Amino acid sequence: MDLSLSTRNVTGPGGDRTVVEVGGEIDVYTAPKLREQLVELVNDGSYHLVVDMEGVDFLDSTGLGVLVGGLKRVRAHEGSLRLVCNQERILKIFRITGLTKVFPIHTTVEEAIEATD
Fold it and tell me: What are 21-56's pLDDT values in tens digits?
């Protein structure tokens, strides 16, 4: 399966956010596409990202690595990376790996946008 990506800018109580909508599978084959998108956004000055994973069907360790790398990039600029995920099978991966302590995970995009850092 392929990976679909789209971005949009929004302003919420916490300030400007860039929402990255991700669909499909984030795996060893498609993760580089997501990595490129996150690097490009940070290079363009978007330091507060919301990654909407509601459309993600599968996530492997390569995908987790890309998300952690994105978090490191935005934190280097005093930024934030919030995840939107409400699928139990994907949330389980974050719990098992302990990444629920690393990423703020929200159930809706609106909730993530309204969150303040």
Answer: 999 999 999 999 999 999 999 999 999 999 999 999
Q: Which domain range does residue 48 map to? A: 3-112
Burial category of 89 from C-beta neighbours within 10 Å (exposed 0-12, middle 13-18, buried 19 and up): exposed
Q: What is the CATH number of the domain that holds 99?
A: 3.30.750.24
Give dist(CA 81, CA 50) in Å, integer.
6
Q: Exposed (0-12), middle (13-18) or buried (19+): which is 94, by Cβ within 10 Å?
A: buried
Spatial distance between the Cα atoms of 33 and 15, rounded to a whole number of angstroms? 27
* 3-class DSSP assignment, residue 104: coil
pLDDT digits (tens, 9 = 90+) for 76-105: 999 999 999 999 999 999 999 999 999 999
Rounded to the nearest 5°, which phi and psi values hold at 36?
-60, -40
